[in-house]
């Protein structure tokens, strides 16, 4: 979901050690899928350094070879699979190219065809500027609340304004998918619990308790918006949030499904993208997608 990925981080990805993917889900009972296209941002790409791949998109997109989309495609033995996901993507990048380190990711909709029969979409976090807010409001003083101080004034919560403004953009993205792939079954994913409501875990994640609680509530608000879009457009919502409690970035290695500030993961061991799913998180997303497809 990160809006910008530094060239230094992506350079590390280029040199990262490729490790085996563990915890791959078993095949679902879903009917045969002939052509699957994955769309979305870095939480759809499951942005990775140790498992970064340029097979489907420029290496600068930081796609993980263990991402949920790739796991779903493998579990369903999909004959034609295209992964357009890219770190930093916004809804505008469905129809416009995205400049990334080491290349340009073409408009994500370019991967859709009239024969596409399955599409997963995870988008909206960057449009709402939630991801970049997390990174820009880190603090060395647990007594201050830069998120609340800069984004909430009186009755106006700028993040709520951003989320509301993103709603029609996500809706338009789904309409664009239908125009290009009228046969496709469309699954819209929300974002699982990377940050929870209530007190944070300063200094492990250097965000004050007040800001951590606010961010947790904004994530719920973002997911509620995505649920409204799914209902209004008639697509299927993949709820990854409600089943992810207790796996946020404050939890210890082996329990957390998203990394905190320290750019190191134990799942798999090696450098990681802060505030993004690790392999355990990607496995969770894959299980939830397959559960919906098999339902």
Total helices: the number is: 8
The average pLDDT score comes to 90
How many β-strand runs? Answer: 11
Low-confidence stretches: 2-22
Our estimate of the beta-strand percent is 5-15%
Number of domains as seen in the coordinates: 1
Order of helices and strands, N to C?
Answer: HEHHEEEEHHEEHEHEEEH
Query: What is the CATH H-level superfamily?
Result: SGNH hydrolase
- Helix coverage percent of residues? 25-40%
In CATH, what is the class? Answer: Alpha Beta
Distance between the termini: 28 Å
Q: What is the alpha-carbon Rg in Å?
A: 18 Å
Q: Order of strands across the widest beta sheet?
A: 2-1-5-8-9
CATH topology: Rossmann fold
Shape: globular
- Please give the largest β-sheet: 5 strands, parallel
Which architecture name does CATH use? 3-Layer(aba) Sandwich
> From the helix content, strand content and strand pairing, which structural class follows?
alpha/beta
Walkthrough of the structure:
The protein is α/β, with parallel strands linked by helices and about 300 residues long. It has a single domain, classed as Rossmann fold (3-Layer(aba) Sandwich). It contains 8 helices and 11 strands. The chain starts with 6 loop residues before the first helix and ends with a helix. Residues about 1-20 have low confidence and may be disordered.
Tags for this model:
hydrolase; SGNH/GDSL hydrolase family protein; Rossmann fold; two-stranded antiparallel sheet; alpha/beta; 295 residues; globular; 11 strands; 33% helix
